[in-house]
Amino acid sequence: MQYGQTAITPAHPEVFLGMVHTATIILLDVFAFSVVIYQAWGLINLQQSLGFYSREGLVKLLLRQGILRFSALNNFREAS
Q1: What DSSP state is assigned to residue 44?
Q2: pTM over the 0.85 mark
């Protein structure tokens, strides 16, 4: 180690830039992972609020969207 040089900064600047680059990549990965966790948490809360964890809630949601009515109409047309 040369005089006046700290232990954090290595002797070669490219090594220091490599360390900064690696730290930046790690921070971006942590940020991206936290965004994925946040979105998954929001999706779980959305499913719970829509009632996907109960059969009655799912039926109510499908009725509200008109999906069951449309499929029942198609089944009636095919049967007749």
Answers
A1: H
A2: no
Count of domains for the chain? 1
Residues 39-60 pLDDT 10s: 777 777 777 777 666 556 666 6
Which residues 6+ apart lie within 8 Å of 47 measured at CB?
53
Please report which residue ranges of 1-80 form alpha helices under DSSP H.
Answer: 13-50, 55-65, 67-79
Residue pair 5/11 in contact (Cβ under 8 Å)? The answer is yes
Q: Are 42 and 33 in contact (CB under 8 A)?
A: no
Domain assignment of residue 5, yes or no: no
Residue 8: inside a domain = no
